[in-house]
Fold each of these.
Amino acid sequence: MQIYNTLTRRKEAFTPIEPGRVRMYVCGMTVYDYCHLGHARVMVAFDVITRYLRYRGFDVTYVRNVTDIDDKILRRADENGETISSLTERMIEAMHEDEARLGVLPPDSEPRATRHIGDIIAMIETLITKGYAYAADNGDVYYRVRRFEGYGKLNNRDLDEMRSGARVEVDEHKEDPLDFVLWKAAKPGEASWPSPWGEGRPGWHIECSAMSKCCLGDTFDIHGGGPDLTFPHHENEIAQSEAANGKPFVNTWMHAGAVRVNHEKMSKSLGNFFTIREVLEHHDPEVVRYLLVASHYRSAINYAPESLADARKSLERFYNSLEGLALEGQALVGSESSAGERDRQFDARFTSAMDDDFNTPEALSVLFDLARELNRAKKESPEQAPALAAELRRLGGILGLLQQDPATFLKAGASDLPLSEEEIQEKIDARAAAKKAKDFAAADAIRDELAALGVILKDSREGTTWVVEKPEG
């Protein structure tokens, strides 16, 4: 298995620290607002990675933190006139709802910053003792960036270049403008905790260093996050953790790509900022998940109406292949393949694609080949179709896809039609009667009438089924 390591800027053979076990930490959300599409990208990307590692037989411990104390949280709670705990609990519940709808499995551990204040203070004390941090006279504690020899290695940045090009706020309490805060002295009325340096709260960067150490140890296998976290957040995590623990922090760094809206950066100021729940009001969650999975996790994704339409059509191709087969008990995610040796070639190709830095676009191309083989078998060798369908569902499940009932998915959107499902069935029955009476003109007229409304009929040996396909325009 090869994984691209942001630290070394190349693909590397993945060898976990402990044979058969993977420890992974991913930076989670700062819970002051609803999760947006960028969060969805990170959620789904590392959900797929976790699912696949488990499919490959690894015992995965997946930790994704929650930042529940932060400047943005303080401001939003004040604006709303609610307590910090009320705001964060509400947003965490909403986050769990969003990820569940997208088919994202919960992490094994979800530490919150406010529940690890003791661990955070202990790490800051260690950094002060070792000379990597200092308490200023205003109650803040800062990290000495120049004291850490390897600072900048994740982003391949030189300290002097950072200093000359930095937009650093003037702070007379810092020894060096590049130093960053580990502990913030509390302002009057702010949420705070007692510490050796007075009442205050942790800086953002130290939270993840303390929580990852608590949950996974001094050194672990994979650290992930969004594309905007490599600097300064992850760079600062490395400096803090390696200075405090005296050991390498992380073996493999992974970062998901950005989400763009109509090829522009997603931004509230541009009016193209979408929360997950806003998107799911208008689109099937699996369609949104497919869009996120269809691009390689390191690539940028373009979110646009035509992108979602293409994702829907792709899923319809899969579900059309599965339709009409007895699929009960075939959601065999992670189980052994029941297909014959010829069909296990699909499993081998799928695994080869995913072993290459989780190449989901190539893995999906294997599933399309499998769907074509299933369609052929349904016509020419019906006895082979159930095993192929089971294989398609099983491999799709590793990506978190193709686990719905095909008819249910294909009929999605029926509530927007001018006819009820009962009325559609009545017309299908009338068409069948017309065909039996050899009145083919009437039968064709019924088919055309339904097609004009977006109801597409599909005839098979088992009878006539229908799907919703809105006409163009």
Note: Residues 360-380 form the longest helix (21 residues).
Amino acid sequence: MFFRRKERLRKEFDEKLLFQLNKCKEYWQQEKALLEKSFDPSEEVICQTKIAEAKYIFLLREAKQRKISLIR
């Protein structure tokens, strides 16, 4: 009885993690494209790109630690 709930919660949070991972990946790619297209990027744009990359890498490591596959 208790194990079913634990498994259901794990599955729910894994799905949320995958959603956030995809969202962060898209945002990071947008920021990276904006940085590449900029002639003279400001410090703020550079920092936002690095922050977006760090968030994506953090979530990617978390997914790897939980042994979650992006392809299902």
Note: Helices lie at 2-37, 43-65.
Amino acid sequence: MAERTLRGARLGGQSFEDERGIEFAARQQVGYRCPQQHEFEITMSVEAEVPAVWECPRCGAEGLSTAGIQREEKAEKPVRTHWDMLLERRSEKELEDILKERLELLRGGEIGPAHLHRPSASKKKARANA
């Protein structure tokens, strides 16, 4: 049985195949320079879309392409506030009418925090005697 056992290769998996007959993909070297003036090159496929920035392997800063590739500026949407979203649904006249209606209900005691609407001791006695 000892002859049939397969002995393991070392850790990391060494391949026993050679590179004969293998055609590698076409590659290109793309240069970058970071703000600390570190210059470095990255190997990429010719078919790959080359990014305008790449992280510097030395300092971690963003390196810009030395080939003059520019970043695409993303069109940013303007910030929408709660007021903007509210005005998309209602006009200012409608909002004023709703505010007046809600204030009347609040002042009349029909809506609002419960502690404002608890009957006082004198009101409880008046109701009990009635």
Note: The mean pLDDT is 83.
Amino acid sequence: MPFAPCLSVKDTAASIAFYKKLGFDVDSSTASPGDDIHMLTYQGGFCGMLYSNADLKKWLPVLADTPIGFAGMFYLAVDNFDAAHDHIAEHAEIVKDTDTDHTGQRMFYFRDPDGYVIGINDNAALQASDLGKYA
């Protein structure tokens, strides 16, 4: 099973609006009544969850004193890298613009409203590279 990130956010409505502007979809149908958790998808594929920080602290009290955000990043492989870049750049802060690494991966990074950094890479280049065995 792949990792399923659950992002603790201050305001789920603001985060949902932000991610929708970037082309993501949100499905809230699996949440229990009163539970502020939402499934985040991109082009039909599951990416992770958005969870109200207040609710997360109740669900996992061990995280009660943990600040929102983290040191690290998440990656999302997209089929149309250039279109994704142009669209996301209109609505989000690009913290590191397009670069190509030693494996041939093109990637850029943006920050969401809660400080999470998301890396976008080219799915075709990922599949063709040595990293493709992990994708």
Note: The helical segments are 12-21, 53-59, 81-91, 123-128.
